[in-house]
Structure formats: structure tokens, C-alpha cells
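RETRY 2/3 - previous attempt timed out on the joint model. Re-submitting the same 953-residue input unchanged.
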Amino acid sequence: MSATVQDAPAPAPAPERKPEPDRPSYLQQVLDSTTTTVVVAILIALGLAAVLVVAADAASQDALSYVFARPADFFEAAWNAIYETYSALFRGAIFDYQAEGARRIRPITETMVSSVPLILAGLGLGIGFRSGLFNIGAQGQVLVGAAAAAYLGFTLDLPVVAHVVVACLGAVVAGGIWAGIAGFLKARTGASEVIVTIMLNSIALYLVSYLLTTAVLRQPGSTRPITPPVGENAMMPLLLGSQFRLHAGFLVALLAAVGVWWLMERSTLGFRFRAVGANQDAARTAGINVQRVFVSVMLVAGGLAGLGGAMQILGTDRTFQAGSAGSIGFDAITVALLGRSRPLGTVLAALLFGALRAGSPLMQTAAGTPIDLVLVIQAVIVLLIAAPPLVRELSVIHWAATLFGYDRKKAAA
Amino acid sequence: MRLELQGITKRFGSLVANDGIDLTFEPGQIHALLGENGAGKSTMMNVLYGLYQPDAGQIVVDGQPRTFAGPGDAMAAGIGMVHQHFMLIPVFTVAENVVLGHEPVVGGSLIDLAEARRRVKAISDRFGFAVDPDALVEDLPVGVQQRVEIIKALSRDAQVLILDEPTAVLTPQETDELIGIMRQLKDAGTSIVFITHKLREVRAVADTISVIRRGKVVGTASPESSEVELASLMVGRSVSLAVEKPAAEPGEATFQVRDLTVLDVHGNAVVDGVSFDVHRGEILAIAGVQGNGQTELTETILGLDTPTAGQLLLDGVDLGGKKVHEVIEAGVGFVPEDRSSDGLIASFSIAENLILDMHRSAPFARAGSLSPARVAENAAHRVDEFDIRVRSVQDAVSTLSGGNQQKVVLAREMSRPLRLFVASQPTRGLDVGSIEFVHKRIVAERDNGTPVVIVSTELDEVLALADRIAVMYRGKIIGIVEGGQTADRDVLGLMMAGVPLEQAREQAAGHHTALAAADAVAQAEEGAGPAPTTDEEGTA
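RETRY 2/3 succeeded.
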């Protein structure tokens, strides 16, 4: 008998679970960032932008050359530059206290108009993020949606309401199919949705650019790659009369936000989306068809992005060209991340980006601050939000976030 | 080089992964560490390799206490490790992989690839590895990649080589070759720490065997020990796990498995012609050392795997090839082996987890819309019924302890009318109180008239629960015996080592193990008076 028993095993809790909990996925970490960190990120971005404003301001540069002799001069000049920039931004984006009458509220309506496509595309991306799909393809989905809406808008001639509804539905279908390609490829072959959607962005751009040179989209008799204007009945109705550009698309976007909230929080489909996003293995074991969820998520996300594209044409532009989508699809990624992929957060983030977009022209003309400053603000926000593991280690953010009641341990839990 | 671990303790939160481990690795010996998955082997090796810092205890090299802040320190001290999952760069050549991290340099900054090749060739020739230094690692078979890992360790003058589950990825032929390599290395004076849960290999190659269970070294054995002794040590012995259960009243056999065969991705039969019946009101336990096809069997029942051949008849309907949700809707309750990865969604609330596989249907959903009120109401009931300790059912399930998490899984799977209940490792990682509760619920489900299948690698659990016991070995059912008082540990242990039933009975009759003898003594004492059933707590 060669075996010696030193001691029989105690029925103690066995070391079964993995010693270290799995690190949450990158996406999960981004989505878990708290409201406080988001707010702090925005404030820091505005602060950094202020430094750039001062650095670019001629008066401040002059005052800086003798800052040790008369520091007050420098601070006065710097303050003036910052004040002028941000007050112009405010007047351009929210409330123009220097204007007369109804024009004073025009800036806020412009902000709302700019935010409409961002809200819709951002909502779609948020659904993808929460379902574990990193859809980078909103740009292409917006573009095909806009193209479809424009095509249905100028080829058909339908009665009031019907026309705009048909054009919007066409955009939803086009965007949905475009994103659905990526979902289908992921489900069938495991192809990375990141790569496929990026490629589809390029394909969408060159496809519509080509179609704009053919009779399909190009205005007859024109040589410019631009569509004819859509019919009167295909335009979104204006909400505040012809003085303002604010159109019913804003209400559509808000309704879509409520709809997405219901989808994700209350519907069985959204339950499956979230389950797949949080733990694919457990979802599969619970009888959820993960492949089908991939496709469904992309269809819904693409549909929303396509609708966002439609709003750009049917709400404001009226004609479609290759540049119609601007950078909506890419800004929407930031919007969705900034809004932590929740509907309310997405709406607020889209309004912030809409405000930056609406306010920047006045900032340039009134304060002489380069319009690129807005891009810097956006970029810094992206950096602070989208690199959570990096950012959480930056002590300045910690320090600032703690001031605002951010608790690292609570956030980690 | 003589390497000692003295009283190594490593905790993760409340979990004690290593509990006062004392081990000595003598030079020129193959020392096998035997234990089930999760017994704490890997944690211990990670402590030894400097990846974890021990909470107590020390590592002693040739009489000198050492601390390893990282793998670099461990390597410098002459410890090499071959991980279960290779740490190789697939697009690099063998030579590049071997020198990675300590590249020979010429002219100040250029890698001396000729020198790298020479090093690989020297080691390869010395041991007859036949590895081409210029081959790309991704082009090599798994067995050769493993040799590259070994060369990598040897090229850094490793005197102690840790092999973590080295045969898990190898074919039988490659395993034989590896055993040959291990013997050669040993003859050359290298000590080898061989981590595994495969009994045959241990007996074939080890000089010393230490068995680890629940974070402790529970015994040492020589390679002459029989497999049944090793198996008993590994899965443990009489812990007081008795479940008071009335005798089974089996009804008709409503779940019938017929010639079930499942192939893995490489085309090997992981479940090989398995047939058994489960009757209503009966618990069939599937015993066996881990990795003998039990996981694949249960996953095939649930529809996660597709059978290559054979049938899974539930009330006469074949479940084979059906989708998971169809199997669930057919009335199959399933407790997966690994609750944290397959049973629960950590970030979801307790209430949501309690309806995870029932979220489509009434009463929780109508016309695609979930009713939060009903979901919460259901959660309140289940939490009550299963005595799940929660602050709020809206808290994330990850805030619960392991025992309470398992109760959530169990509560969910038992909260609908079942026609078959399948549970894999239902009490893995649970404390005694939770184990008892889970066992009671499983017996209650049986008494409802549900056929129950339990898969467990813990012999104690099998003996406590089973009305009949099927032993699985290499994908086959090697025999089915009656459970309860008549079940013989030695027979089961032999069967778990692959000895067919009749032979096992003969061998067991003539050769009782020390463990069985100890059991007999304990039982006699228990009969005489209130003997300590868990005497180990006194000695620990």
C-alpha cells in the first residue's frame, strides 16, 4: 500500500471560479463609464479648448510676451478670448441675446435640426454596442438611407403624408439591408462586423457617387452629381413656420428614442439583444439563437441610421449628393458612446454635438476662433470617453471626477 | 536544483485557491501533480512562476528562500514553464520564437539569427526533437509546437520544467512521444513538474505523485499505486454528504439514449455509442474522471452539439438535432457545468436571470413585450422558495455568492414543468450548506416523477444522489451499477480508470484499498456512536 493519506479533504468551498474575474470587454468598459465621467470629460474638453483659444489669440500672445511685467494684461486678454469664443458658441447654438424677436431662439432650433440625424444614427449604433456588435458602418447606412429617400422623393408623386412616409420607409429598408449584410456575414461566416461595416462605408460612398453620375440619381440635364429636389409632399413638415428650419424629424427622432428604450428594456427581442451582448455562451445555453440576433441587431441599427439619412434630405437638404451624409455616421459613434448607448444619453449627446455644429460658424465669424476648435473639442471628448482603461489611470481625471462625486470603487463594482 | 514550496497559500477574495501547500521537487525526478480541474494546480504553478504573489508561505530554491516578482525572476532562477495554451507567435520561425525576449545580438542591434538557429539545433539534436529552426510555428503540428516551447525553456537553462496539462492537446501518438521526451530530460538531470488529471499518463511516467484537491495536497503516492487509489484520492472520500432520500419509485423509462455518438472538430468520437435509459422518478448519475465525454453528452442533450449518430428519445420524440429552445420547450431543465460562463449573465439582474430561458412566453411576455411586474413577482417567489439570499432581485446576479448563484440557476430550471432534468456538476464550488440544499431539491424533483440525470466527477456526490450510476470512460459508458448502499467505491474507482464492470468487481473483491478500509472503519465508528464524520477538520 503505497498511498498515504495526509488529510481527507475538507468540504470547504473549492477554488472553482477563475481566480481573476474576466476583464469586461473593451466595449463593456466604455459603456460602463458613469455619467460623472462623461460630464467630466466634456468639461475637460472645453477646458483644453480654452487653452487652445488663448494660444491662438493674437492679443493674448502679445500680452504673454510681457506677462511677468504686467500679468493682469495677459489674463485679461486670455479671458476676453475665451469669453468671446464661448459666448459666440452659445449665441450660435442656444440663444442669441443680441438678436431681435423670434430670431433670438433660432440658434436652439438649429441645434435641434443638426441633432436629428445624429440621434437616429446614434440610437442604432447604441443598440449594436449593447448587443456586442461594434458597428462602424453608420456612415454607409446613413448614405444609402439618404439616397433611397431622395430617390423615392423625386421619382414618386404621392399625396401628402403618404409620400414622406414612403420615402422614410424606403430609407429604413435601405439602411437596414446595408447593415444587414454585415450582420448576415457575421452570423454565417463569423466575419468581423468592424471590418465589414468599414468596407461597406466605402462601397456605399462609391456606389452613390457612381449612381449620381447616371440617370438613376442625377438631375436630368445637369452635369453636376446631384439629384433633383424631392417633391413638396416628401418634405418633413416644418414645426415653427418658415422662419425656422426645425422640422417634424426632431419629433420622429424623439419617438425613435422612446421606441428604442422600449425595445431594449421591455421587449423580448431587446432582452435577447442584451443577453447576447453580455454573455453569448449563456445566451446560447438559454436557447437564444445568437446568429439570428446578430442579423436582427444590424437590421434595426441600419434601419435607424438609414432613417437618419432620410432626415438630412427630407428635413433640410432637399437634394442629395455624395457629401450629404457629411460625417454624421462617424459623429454618431461618438454620440452613442458619449450617451453610453442609452436612448436618453444618446439624445443629450446628439444635442451637444448638434450645438457644437450649429454654434461653430458664429464662433468663427464673431470671435475669430477657427471652426476647427469644435473638432478639437469633439476629439478630446472621444479620447476621454473611448479610452476608459487609459483615462481611468489619469490622475487628473480621477481628481476631477472625485470632486464631482465619482467613486472609483463603485464604478469598478 | 531542489525546489520547495513551503506553506503556500493564495486567496482570491474569500476563495482559498491554495491552502498551505507543501511540496518538494527533487532534481532529476518527474513529479506529477494530479487533481481535477479547479483543484488549485494552476494557481500554484502561477505562484511558482511568479505570476501570482502568495499570501503566505515561501518558495525555496536549493535551500535559499526566493521571491519571484514575475516570470523573469522565475526563469532566472532556472524555472521554465510550458503553458497549456502555447505562448508562441505563429508567424515567427521556431528560432525567432525560441530567442524571443533574450535575442542574441550582432553589431550592436541586429538579431543574430544564425546564433538563434544554432541554439535551437543544439537542443533539438541533443534530445532528438527533429525541429526545423526555420519552420514557421503556425505550420507545425501541435505536438511539435509543444517541443518548441520545451526548447524555449531549455534554452534559458531551465532546471525545473513545469508542464501544465501538456497532453490535453495531443493525440495518443504525440503523447507517447512527449513521454519519451520527458524521460530523456529527466535522464539529463532536469526535474519535471507534470500537471495533469489523466491517471494513465501519471502512472506511466511519474516518479512521485502528489494529489491536490480543493487547494490542498491531500496525499502523495508512488507510481505503483493502482489507478483506483489515485482516482479515489482525486475525487475524495467519505465527506458527510448523505442525503436523506426515500427509496426511488421508478416509473417507465421516458428518456432513452440510443447509440449516441458525437464527434469533436477533429473527428474524434468524444461520445462513443452511448446508450442508457432514465426512468421517471429516478436519478441516474454519470460518474467519471473529467474529460471523458460527459460535457459533450449533456451539451448534446440540450442541443448545443449535434449528434453524429444515435437518438435521444424523450417520451418517444428524438431530441437529436433540435435547437436549444425547442429542447427547453420540450420540458428539459438544464444546469450547465460552468454556471458563470453558461448559466448566468453576470451583468443581468437576478430577476432577469431567473427568466433567461423563459423570456419568450407567458406569463413573462405577451406579444413580444416583457412584463417587468411579472418578472419581479416571479423572482420574489423563486428567491423565497429557494432561499436565495439577496438584497434586491434587481441587483446584478454577480453580486451573489457562488452558492446563491447556483440556486438562481436551479430555481430557474426547476420553475417550469419538467419532463427531464439534467444537471452537470450541480454543486461544484459550493459550501456544504448549499450542497445539501441543492441535493434536496434534486431529490425533490425526482420525487415529482421527473427523470433526472446528474453528471458529477465527485464520487461522494454520485453516491449520495444516485439511484443508478453509469460510469463514463473515454466517451463510452463502461458499465451501469445500482446506487445506494450496494455501490462499491472500489468498483466505481476501477471503472473510472477504464476497467470493465465484471473485472472491476473481481479486482475490488481481492484488493481493497486503504481508502475503502478507512471508510469501513469510519462507518463502524459511526455505528458505535457520534463519531466525527469530518475528522479532517480537526487535523487541518
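The longest strand of chain A covers residues 4-5. Closing ticket.
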